[in-house]
Amino acid sequence: APRIAVMTSGGDSAGMNAAVRAVAKSAILRGCQAWVVREGWEGLVRGNAEGEEESTDGDATPPHPEPETLPPSVAQPPGTSEARRWRGTYGQGELLREGVGEAEELGLKGKYILRVGWDDVRGWMDQGGTLIGTARCAAFREVAGRQRAARNLISCGIDALVVCGGDGSLTGADRLRAEWPELVAALLERGEISAEQAQRHRHLKIVGLVGSIDNDMATTDMTIGAATALARICEAVDSISSTAASHSRAFVVEVMGRHCGWLALMAGIATGADYVFLPERPPPGDWRADMCGVLARHREMGKRKTIVIVAEGALARDLTPISPDDIKAVLAERLGLDTRVTTLGHTQRGGKPVAADRVLATLQGVEAVEALLEATPETPSYVIGIRENKITRIELMHAVQQTQLVAQRIEKQDFDGALALRDSEFAE
Ligand code: ATP
Fold first, then answer.
1. Whole-number Å distance between alpha carbons of 6 and 4
2. Does 171 sit in the ligand 1 pocket, CB within 6 Å?
């Protein structure tokens, strides 16, 4: 049976657990073994301390079990292949309760690549963050690190990988696949893998899922976690609004998004903010004069509160960054407003995924497994997206390159061009 591993990498986002659950469960339903890699690329580079290779332990199940056979009887003796498939090694939500990272009593210390069963990912749908952990990994940027990652994948017998992360993580995935034949040849030459293993692992299949609160990937309408982050921001701005109105104050609210203004723009619309600063659409002319003109007009019309939302990557037309404190100073000096700054910070990342992220992650996780099962050495690596409400497959490097082009256009002050790229309709 093919062995499909799933990992989360880069910044966490709500819905990553739902994606891992969907990949694991659909892999099992399609007759594959499901594996997880803890702690992103870092875990893949570290591998399993004992270098333990999982036995093939039978794999006797038919590739497409009938739905009525699910879930299987829990009466199966533990340790059998069938029990591992369904109950998992840990089972009954232990991974969830113990937290994958610290679960020494589950024998996870020094073990980063684990086989999971149906029950191991039970209850993951509504959990925030990523239970299998995520990390940034400098070693994976070097060939030596990717070689260790390749060896660890091979020693666990894994031939297909789903990576859920941002454009950096997906670039890493693409590199791993592109270099794969050379990595395997080098490992064979050094005697780290057998000729049989080298033959069996000639190719690596990779599919990406975009997990990012920023919604910053070109070619897809939504990324996993963006809807939840937006909901968190709206809740926070609603709370701020009532106190702002009580005291007739102004609030400058900084939201995340890195170089992407999607969260700021959508939060501005959803909360009826007075003014929004984005990286892709700097205010016309002098931003101070423009903002004060708008806000003064709103006040003259009787508004008791002023809400300004600023994306963390906000820029002026000349590309100088605009910070919340800059804005506060202008509001206080020019308009005489009692102004407070609120940086929402990590509350935006946390908490339960909203329904839209659970659905997106689940549909995309299922599609990722389908794409892996259909992949051949000739097909490109895909990233799973969504456009006009349909789940799509986009060539991974095309999606990453289009995303990087956005930043380049902003650097050239080609703001319309940057926005056109952000809008997936124009992305191809
Ligand atoms: P986020 O958008 O949340 O920051 P990201 O996936 O873009 O997510 P990065 O920190 O850029 O986050 O990348 C995560 C990891 O992916 C890095 O720590 C590194 O291990 C790997 N990676 C990134 N870029 C490359 C690259 N060019 N080559 C190899 N590995 C890379």
1. 7
2. yes
